[in-house]
């Protein structure tokens, strides 16, 4: 299982989540499910709908989800997952993430350390809801040589 | 009644229902549809319901375009054209994560208890603060209310139409109970004669708009409640917009046009209408919800002819009576919000204060009802004044003016020694309180048999308390052939205010 993300999209997502720091940022990943792997075509950032505890909680409301789904359908795509940040916390799902998880979707978590994106990992819920299982995050180089590909050495996308 | 309903399954759950995007289910309510769905597709159960069998907090259920949380939750009824959709909300966050180690051992393992939902509100219901826990303690220890029920009350919104006799006790108890948002519709000012029963208002607020005094009283009673004032007359033009943002509507009106208007607007919007009415020593209450039972029109398809049923201002009302009926409306409203007990839907409760008896009638939905029957003909709000046979104000005013005389004019006629007969059509006990010197008492209901006492060749001036009963007396006499008639505008009340203050006002 893997999640494929163009580098420019990863940069967009990171920028969005750094803007939200010290609060959690969030959004929807739209793309194609190809069986095991899925390709993200668009990332739609959403306002964090939590009214409190936004430093360690996020919420994408049903109407936001419906809006994203509509946009996806119109482009012949599907909602394939979500992204959110863990400000000053590792990019691993919390117990709270697990309790609220939907099956099928990819959950891309970005650790934002002191305002900078430090680590990104993607997860899917296990069939029995007992845990999140890691999936490979593939960052695809851009066809455009001018696109800024974040370097892992600078604390970029993959972090390792 | 079970109907066939289409349940839309979101992409992530399709693997558990053989990749179908729509499943057809026979069910009467949303809750029943979901339970039938997981009974058929057991793999789906753990994704929709938690271990205690409750819908998971991130599972949102829509009936057509509306979140059932804003309708009646799992009790939301279904009809054959409805579709049910399961819509994800996506939540999470870093909290609950213990150490900062990057070496993920067991991803997502539970670490320590998360704060309870009632304190954070993450299950969609609003959280309760410490003062609220203290305030609502007696509710919280009732298993039928408890934390969840109290939070449902806080999440709920109720529109009270009329801040008068019924609206007063009702709004006070709803605010005290912690209903989160209370809307009030009224455009009157507080008068002394209101204070005998309208306990929202006090002597110090006489002359103020009722909504000002109501909002002040309710906010003082419970600062956790949001009071929304709609200082307008409810009309066919504004009713849908005013009612729409509320979960439950309570009818505390005192006239037929508004009662039909509230009923029709509630039915068109699919909202429950908690009904109450009072007269003298008797009251009625019911809950009209056309989705689950009859509406007011099933009970009373046509309004009474204008003037047949006197208002409380004309007929009187025992001040404590609206307390009983308003509080029954309050109980029904709170039961609807909590989803507990047996509602008054389909039952008409009759209360007789003199005999101190409650009776109950069973109400049936009328399949021929023009509003909620099988072939409805009313699909939008109509002109309720015309429906109730009440002429538009200008027209009625112009017509009435021809037959009216003002109190000063009458006094001038008297001073000039002009010849006329003054007939008082009030009741003997009113005559005892106050009378205009020289008047003859013929109570309205005795007028038909006592008409022969009147001389049609002399001018007859009719009066009552405010001028309404005497206007009806005038119409009766006109039909009997009398022509030299005048109605005293404003009745004995105006006489007392403008001509002779020694005549007591009541």
Account of the 3D structure:
The complex is a heterodimer of chains A (160) and B (506). Chain A has a seven-stranded mixed barrel. Chain A is an alpha/beta fold. Chain A has one domain (2-142): Cytidine Deaminase, domain 2, CATH 3.40.140. The model of chain A is unreliable at 144-160 (pLDDT under 50). Chain A is 20% helix and 40% strand. Chain A has three helices and eight strands; from the N terminus they run βαβββαβαβββ. Chain A is globular, with a radius of gyration of 15 Å. In chain B, strands 9-8-7-10-11-12-13-14 form an eight-stranded mixed beta sheet, with helices on both faces. In chain B, α10 links the parallel β10 (248-251) and β11. By secondary structure, chain B is an alpha/beta fold. The relative contact order of chain B is 0.07. The two termini of chain B are 53 Å apart. Residues 97-113 of chain B have low confidence and may be disordered. In chain B, α1 crosses α2, α7 packs parallel to α8 (210-221) and α7 (167-177) packs parallel to α13. Chain B is built from 20 helices and 19 strands. The A-B interface holds A 24, 26, 28, 51-53, 56-62, 65-66, 78-79, 82, 84, 86-87, 89-90, 92-105, 107, 119, 123, 128-129, 131-134 and B 11-13, 15, 46-47, 56-58, 60, 62, 67, 87-97, 100-102, 104, 106-112, 114, 120-122. β4 (58-60) of chain A pairs antiparallel with β6 (90-92) of chain B.
Describe, in short, the structure shown.
Helices cover 20% and strands 40% of the residues of chain A. Chain A has 160 residues and is α/β, with parallel strands linked by helices. The longest helix of chain A has 14 residues, at 7-20.
